[in-house]
Amino acid sequence: MPQRTYDNLLLLKDAGAIVADGPATVGGQPRVVDVGDAEFPCNAVVDTSAIDTTSLDETYFVVIQGCTTIGFATGVVELARIAVTAAGRVEAPVTNMRSGLNYRYMRAYNDVGGTTPSINSTVFLSKR
């Protein structure tokens, strides 16, 4: 896997255990990144340090979402859905454009399931 450039301004989730669905946070606060008015082709990079699979029914997805407004109250679209099944790095290409519409605001959303879900990972965007 190629080395990805890390930019702290594109960090969507910092380290910390996730046990329920919800928007990803940095410093305990939901993180939304403004990628601007133009197309923003990038890679979503998920680095996982710990993952619970003991019940054998846990599921983990990092969803990269886009929105035309910073509040993510309405008009949220799924730009990428990344399955995480083990510790290590997983990445996926993503862009903020869908059907000619620019989703200038991006965030990560944690979608977990199963009996005892718990995952510790960081998520960031890396320009292509």
Fraction of residues in helices? under 10%
Strand content: over 45%
How many H/I helical runs?
Answer: 0
What is the CATH third-level topology name?
A: Jelly Rolls
Q: How many DSSP-defined strands?
A: 14
Annotated CATH architecture = Sandwich
Number of domains: 1
Rounded average pLDDT: 96
What oligomeric state do the depicted chains represent? Answer: single chain
Q: What is the C-alpha radius of gyration, as a whole number of Å?
A: 14 Å
How are helices and strands ordered from N to C? Answer: EEEEEEEEEEEEEE
Largest sheet: number of strands, sense, barrel closure:
5 strands, antiparallel
Class inferred from helices and paired strands: mainly beta
Spans of at least 5 consecutive residues with low confidence:
none
**What would you call the shape?**
globular
**Straight-line distance between termini:** 14 Å
Q: What is the name of the CATH class?
A: Mainly Beta
How is the secondary structure organized here?
Elements: E1 11-13, E2 17-18, E3 22-23, E4 25-26, E5 29-30, E6 33-34, E7 42-51, E8 59-67, E9 77-83, E10 88-94, E11 97-98, E12 101-102, E13 105-113, E14 119-127
Keywords:
single chain, 128 residues, mainly beta, Jelly Rolls, five-stranded antiparallel beta sheet
Task: Give structural notes.
With 128 residues, the chain is mainly β. It has a single domain (8-127), classed as Jelly Rolls. The chain contains no helices and 14 strands. It has strands spanning 11-13, 17-18, 22-23, 25-26, 29-30, 33-34, 42-51, 59-67, 77-83, 88-94, 97-98, 101-102, 105-113, 119-127. Strands 1, 2, 7, 10 and 14 form a 5-stranded antiparallel beta sheet that branches. Strands 3, 6, 8, 9 and 13 form a 5-stranded antiparallel beta sheet that branches. The radius of gyration is 14 Å and the shape is globular. The protein starts with 10 loop residues before the first strand and ends with a strand.
